Amino acid sequence: MNDRQDDQRDGNAAARALVAGVCAGDxxxxxxxxxxxxxxxxxxxxxxxxVVEALLPYAGNGLRIAVSGAPGAGKSxxxxxxxxxxxxxxxxxxxLAIDPSSPRSGGAILGDKTRMDRLARDERAFIRPTPSAGxxxxxxxxxxxxxxxxxxxxxxxxxxxxxxVGQSETAAADLTDxxxxxxxxxxxxxxxxxxxxxVELADLIVVTKGDGxxxxxxxxxxxxxxxxxxxxxxxxxxxxxxxxxxxAFTGEGIPRIADAIEAFRAATAGWRDRLRAEQARRGLDRxxxxxxxxxxxxxxxxxxxxxALEAEVxxxxxxxxAAARALVAGxxxxxxxxxx
Length: 340
Ligand SMILES: Nc1nc2c(ncn2[C@@H]2O[C@H](COP(=O)(O)OP(=O)(O)O)[C@@H](O)[C@H]2O)c(=O)[nH]1
Ligand SMILES: [Mg+2]
Hints:
Elements: H1 3-23, H2 27-38, H3 42-55, E1 63-68, H4 75-88, E2 93-98, H5 106-115, H6 117-120, E3 125-127, H7 136-152, E4 157-162, H8 168-173, E5 178-183, H9 196-201, E6 204-207, H10 215-230, E7 242-245, H11 254-267, H12 269-297, H13 300-314, H14 320-336
Parallel strand pairs: 1-4, 1-5, 2-3, 2-4, 5-6, 6-7
Helix pairs in contact: 1-2, 1-3, 2-3, 2-7, 4-11, 7-12, 13-14
């Protein structure tokens, strides 16, 4: 056997062990599998792909919920309180994050771990706070694969925390069945502070921090959003977006939010498969762009050609369409000459 066949055999064995571990609900295998799909190292790609392909048939049974909102809106603390409520109801809860801006720093992980301390220690929950930094497309792909992995491991409620700014919201919406927008009273994220585009994505608006001194302000914010929702059409057939209030500190309102989510799940059951089919098609587009990026990056000559073409496009000497065609021609040429 040559080295390449040896590598392949080791890779197959590694993939089989991970697949068995994830299916058995082994948390360490699950964590390792997620690390693999997040990896940008070319040598991890084959095993990551084999693991995802093998687990795909076991995924799909979860309800996928995006939890978005401006920084400080109370997302992490809400997820802790809400996640604990869900596990008490008999669910198994996975928490993922989508944040292309944040490097995998100890600080970020520590911050979220302390905020979700009790949930993190619960057997019935699995928390993966901060994915590695990367392009939005790459991070979205990895988070989509992480959803497959946690569902295959038996987690039936998947919460995806976003950063509340920019395009990560759209990416999260494209990976989930339901979109929660969290807004806090009296902290500058009242109606005018939240981008209308994000409000339009929301299936459920959760006004947080409805306790103590903030309670009256929470009521006003809820009324404002209620009025604003009346002017918008919901994005989902069979579901009218609504506003709920809660306090993660006192637990007030948390059961109503769980009820609202179950109502959404029941009302949209027939539509969910179609939604996911659409999302999967868009996922293919993302994966295609990512695969082309990787293939170009893995070949020194093509990487050089890309850099040269980028400079030509930037300076207006060549159009993007012609440059892209030249790169694809370079890739096809490489594969045809067997140098892959
Ligand atoms: N009074 C009150 N404060 C809250 C509540 N939830 C969160 N907070 C406060 O909001 C801050 C930010 O919460 P966090 O969950 O980290 O926000 P994130 O950035 O959206 O994840 C926390 O440090 C708390 O002080 C709540 O239910 N009641
Ligand atoms: Mg947070």
